[in-house]
Amino acid sequence: MNEPERTPETTHFGFRDVPVGDKKKLVGQVFSSVAGSYDLMNDLMSLGIHRLWKRYFVGTSGVRRGDRALDLAGGTGDIAALLHERVGEAGSVVLGDINGEMLRVGRDRLTDRGLVRGLDYVQLNAEALPFPDSSFDLVTIAFGLRNVTDKQAALNEMQRVLKVGGRALVLEFSKVQAAWFRPIYDFHSFKVLPRLGRLFAGDADSYQYLAESIRKHPPQDELKAMMQAAGFARCDYRNLSAGIVAIHSGYRV
């Protein structure tokens, strides 16, 4: 059955079509709801593998001491903390997120770990970044692009705020490559995750949305084309865990 055609005034919120103006509010409600249990749920959902994905993501980013990095949809600060280790005292990391509750949790977590100097926190919309052109050596977004209403606008902005020679990296759930594994993955996504959400976060609906949002996110080649359309050069991607997630990269030239 063909998917219903969306009008320019509607967009996806999971498997539902909603007015474009409503998506930010609905996504905001999801992440305000799950902020306190977000890290626990990530461990339960991925059996802890998300930590390895994130370490590999930052470890292969090419970020160097003294660099200035921006982590979008930075949430509870996992990526920002890893970047902070690598840029050192001479560098800086800006953790940006549209959701104030997630930003607060991330700031508190990193402060509790003694990570203060060289870290800034900005509540922002990835589609309209409040930074001048050519501000950063590296821009990252991990498990956040699929929640952005206008993904192309966000990629355009990432390209704009990068310095010439700077790199953008996107870590996101993608299309599983092995056909035999897809039914297992679907069962985990649509049967297991909402139950985990109900048991440990008291919120099954938010995790149902998160599972649906993964299926609506552009697959590997489509996202690569979007990065090229944003003006990035040397665009490429690498599948991790059979394509459950993929790392997309591009450079500003």
Overall form:
globular
Based on helices, strands and strand pairing, what is the structural class? alpha/beta
Strand content: 15-25%
- CATH level-two architecture of the domain at 48-175 and 218-251: 3-Layer(aba) Sandwich
What is the name of the CATH topology of the domain at 48-175 and 218-251?
A: Rossmann fold
Q: Helical residue percent?
A: 40-55%
Indicate the low-confidence ranges by residue numbers: 1-6
Mean of pLDDT:
89
Walkthrough of the structure:
The protein has a domain at 48-175 and 218-251: Vaccinia Virus protein VP39 (Rossmann fold). It is built from 9 helices and 9 strands. The chain has helices spanning 20-34, 38-46, 49-59, 78-87, 100-112, 151-161, 182-201, 204-216, 220-229; strands spanning 10-13, 16-19, 68-72, 92-97, 119-123, 136-142, 162-173, 233-240, 245-251. The strands form 2 sheets. Strands 5-4-3-6-7-9-8 form a 7-stranded mixed sheet, with helices on both faces. Strands 1-2 form a two-stranded antiparallel sheet. The chain is globular and about 45 Å long. It starts with 9 loop residues before the first strand and ends with a strand. The model is unreliable at 1-6 (pLDDT under 50).
